[in-house]
Amino acid sequence: MQGDDIADLIGRVALSDRRAFVALYNQTGPKLFSICLRILKDRTEAEEALQEVYISIWQRARSFSVASGSSSAWLAAIARNRSIDALRARKPVADELDTVYDLADAGPDPETQTVTKDEGRRIDTCMEELEADRAVAVKRAYVEGLSYQELADQFGVPLNTMRTWLRRSLLKLRECMER
Q1: What is the pTM of this model?
Q2: I need a surface site. Which of 15, 82, 135, 139 has the fewest CB within 10 A?
Q3: Maximum CA pair distance of the chain?
């Protein structure tokens, strides 16, 4: 059945034509039922939602306008909305709040997240005050976990020089963070 035929049936339903309503149900019922079933994931609830869909179609057929969109989309929207309403109306598993398990969020709370982000920004700002090679060495040592010897080899400096770079850089970072 074409969209024009469905639109014609909806128009006849708007005039309280029961035969048109039966024909509309026969033509669109399976598709609308599949929409309800996909959303609700329960056959009994989907069947009940489908009944409400067709009651709504009977009551609201006069409001359908071909100019506002396709008839199939209008019907699908009614089925979708009724199914979502049924989903929202489901009774919670626990009748009382006392019987619901307290599920704590393992992650940090919003305040802690904000403080952590602010600290991260402060560290980044302080890292910018270091010389570029010193900042890279600090990141590689304390973020990537490279040893003093590995850093000394990468930068081509003696081991004790690398230790001095890192020590002085950390002192500058501490001083900057305390401001």
Answers
A1: 0.50
A2: 15
A3: 95
